[in-house]
Amino acid sequence: MERAQTRIAGDQTMPITSMLEQAEPFSQAERDAVYKAIYTRRDVRDQFKPDPVSDDVLLRLLDAAHHAPSVGFMQPWNFIVIRAQQERERIWQAFCAANEEAAEMFSGERQSKYRSLKLEGIRKAPINICVTCDRTRGGKVVLGRTHNADMDVYSSVCAIQNLWLAARAEGVGLGWVSIFRPADIRQLLNIPEHVEIVGYLCLGYVDELYTRPELEVKGWNKRTPLEELIFDGRWPDKP
């Protein structure tokens, strides 16, 4: 019988098989909890309370993000935590300038509806987090990224999703701000050029969440039926 493969941990040799566990399905209660987090997760824009988020909770959320899958196990993410009101105010000013540009891209009723949306999370949420992707981490050649250079960015998005679901489980609201000029945020947060800004998040406790996505409730868009998005075997000639 062949000797089992081994993994070196410090100066100890440990069998890889000893690091495996049974892939048992979750119990019904555990499955329900996972799906509840998925289906009730919301993008919070304006409902944040001023109550502080403790360091213990914040570290649990960041640890959940850090346990996201990453191609080549490169773990390209960093998390810039912004708490100071003065710093968040500077970010908000940059957002406002970009938001006005965004509003001008719509016209008529669509523009009016856009301007009616309240996007005050940067100032109201007690914690802001800028999630970045260090595109040099792992070196020039990374396992799994050899033919798709953006896999590091996709991995960082997985970290955000982990954080978002963990936040829902903790009763913490999260909003993803995407309306800003990256150069403005890069300068304000001293982010190097080789590091990409993947997401700017607002975190804080909320009393209520919409039963459906806010943009659906307010008539901006509606959820596409799943059956329209599933193709069998190949992309159809006529979707």
UniProtKB/TrEMBL annotation:
Task: Note the subunit structure.
Answer: Homooctamer.
List each copy of the Nitroreductase domain by range. 38-205
One Pfam annotation reads Nitroreductase
> Which chemical reaction does it catalyze?
FMNH2 + O2 = dialurate + 5,6-dimethylbenzimidazole + D-erythrose 4-phosphate + H(+)
* Name of the protein in question: 5,6-dimethylbenzimidazole synthase
* EC number(s) on file: 1.13.11.79
Q: Name one GO biological process term.
A: cobalamin biosynthetic process
Q: Could you say which protein family the record assigns here?
A: Belongs to the BluB family.
GO MF term list = 5,6-dimethylbenzimidazole synthase activity; nucleotide binding; oxidoreductase activity, acting on paired donors, with incorporation or reduction of molecular oxygen
Judging by the UniProt lineage, the source's domain of life is Bacteria
Q: Which UniProt keywords apply?
A: Cobalamin biosynthesis, Flavoprotein, FMN, NAD, NADP, Nucleotide-binding, Oxidoreductase
- InterPro entries per record: BluB (IPR012825), Nitroreductase (IPR029479), Nitroreductase-like (IPR000415), Nitroreductase/BluB (IPR050627)
